[in-house]
Design a protein that fits this description.
about 120 residues; transmembrane; membrane; transmembrane helix; single chain; Secreted protein; mainly alpha
Amino acid sequence: MTAGDVAGLIAAVAFVLLVGVLAVPLVKLGRVLDELSRSVREVTEHSVTILDEAATTVASANEQLVKVDTITTSAAQVSENVSALAGLYAATLGRPLVKVAAFSYAVRQAFAGASRTAREEGRR
């Protein structure tokens, strides 16, 4: 064997060792990719379930919003009716009551002024 043959044999053995050393990480990488595939499959399965539940929840929320809209519309109508009733009360009873109160105040003031005048004349 010549020096070139020995050098070639050493290079071949070194190359085989290099391939052996690189094979271990490649095998581990293959296992990691298998686990990744399994994880993606599980996430996909759970995502479909979650999306179905979300669709059901959204449909239920829409039904509740329709009910709330109905209640709000009814409340607006009740508010309008109360406002109209308050206006009617003010027109029919409020103004006359204010006039009666003003008249009674004026009568009290007139009597108070008359009695003050009578007392002052009685003192003189």
